[in-house]
Design goal:
The chain is mainly α. Helices cover 92% and strands 0% of the residues.
């Protein structure tokens, strides 16, 4: 059972890290777009939401890895 938790945790963590990278790329593209401040703030709120969800996913994945190691 521990092996499955480890591999599922690794997959969830990698998806979370990919989301973190995607939110960073999203924010950089917004900064380079030359939008006015109000529009930029509104769109960055979406990026912050993506960032938080990705961070939560990567934390959950790492917890699964630790649980898998404990059960192995």
């Amino acid at each position: 059972m521990g092996d499955w938790l480890i591999w599922i945790g690794v997959a969830v963590t990698l998806i979370g890290v990919a989301g973190l990278v995607a939110s960073g790329v999203y924010a950089l593209r917004l900064r380079r777009a030359g939008l006015d401040e109000a529009t930029l703030r509104e769109r960055l709120r979406r990026g912050v939401l993506l960032n938080l969800v990705a961070l939560f996913g990567s934390v959950i994945g790492l917890m699964l890895v630790i649980l898998g190691i404990a059960f192995a």
